[in-house]
Structures are given as C-alpha cells and as structure tokens.
C-alpha cells in the first residue's frame, strides 16, 4: 500500500515573504512532501507574496504563487513538520501548539550547514537583497534537511 506523503508547513509572520519562498524552494527540490505555508499574523490574509519575493525566485527559475493564510490549531495535527524562520516564530508556535505537537516545530536554520542564526525578515528593507539572502539560507538549509529526512 502506498504510504501517505509527509507534510511540511512553512511559517513566518506575514506569509508574504519568507515562508512562501521556503515553500516554493522546497517544492522545487522534492516531490516527496506536500508543502504549504502560513502566517502567524492576520494582516495579509488572501494576498499574493511580496513582488520582491516573486522576482527573486523567478531569477532562480522558480515560480511562486500563494494566497496568504493564518495558521490554525488543526495545522499542528495535519502537518508532520512545522518550520519557522526565526526565534520569535518558534516562540509563538510553541505557545499555540496543542498538546503533543510541540515536537513538530523546527527552526529552519537548525539545518543550515553555514549556521545562520535565523532567516532575517526582509519585508521592511528598501531593496531586494534581503530576499536573495532569504533564498540562499532557505535553499541550503532545506537541501540539508532533505539529505537526512528525504
Ligand atoms: P514575512 O514578512 O513574515 O517574511 O512574510 C513580513 C511581512 C509582513 C509583515 C511582517 C513581516 N507585516 O507586519 O505586515
């Protein structure tokens, strides 16, 4: 019998910059996981990703489409891994995790071979360099994650 695909949810504050980028990068690396992304805050619900996120991924040949949505408590049961982008994300996720789901929460840079502490939030930057850094940290962290969880 075919096994169920594992499921991973990428999470950040607004779900228009870092977590949709991580989702699209991961989808581009593997077909073996179902991926989605979600926000911890409500401000951009229903919105497309930031134009700079779309452009940055386009420059690496990756298409990004997503409608921002809030994380739900059900997500902690549905997904096998819930991956945040910085320490604040992890703190918020731990605070809302239903019983026995806290072990699903991971910080993406736990897997970074170059040991970045976090994926910095590029939203308030005036340019797009922060989005390129986001791409690089997510790509190398997710490649490493896959090499042990592929
Ligand atoms: P993200 O960036 O968490 O990487 O999507 C942000 C986007 C929007 C806001 C904060 C962070 N905001 O406060 O609107």
Question: Can you put this structure into words, describing what you see?
Answer:
The structure is a single chain. The protein has 150 residues and is α/β, with parallel strands linked by helices. The chain has one domain: Response regulator (Rossmann fold, 3-Layer(aba) Sandwich). It is built from 5 helices and 4 strands. A 4-stranded parallel sheet has the order 2-1-3-4, sandwiched between helices. It is globular and about 40 Å long. It starts with 5 loop residues before the first strand and ends with a helix. The structure holds 4-nitrophenyl phosphate (4NP). The site of 4-nitrophenyl phosphate has 11 residues, from loops.
Encode the helix/strand succession as letters: EHEHHEHEH
Mean pLDDT: 97
Low-confidence segments, given as residue ranges, are none
How would you sum up the major sheet?
Answer: 4 strands, parallel
Summed up, what is this model?
With 150 residues, the protein is α/β, with parallel strands linked by helices.
Q: How would you describe this structure in keywords?
A:
5 helices, binds 4-nitrophenyl phosphate, four-stranded parallel β-sheet, Rossmann fold, 150 residues
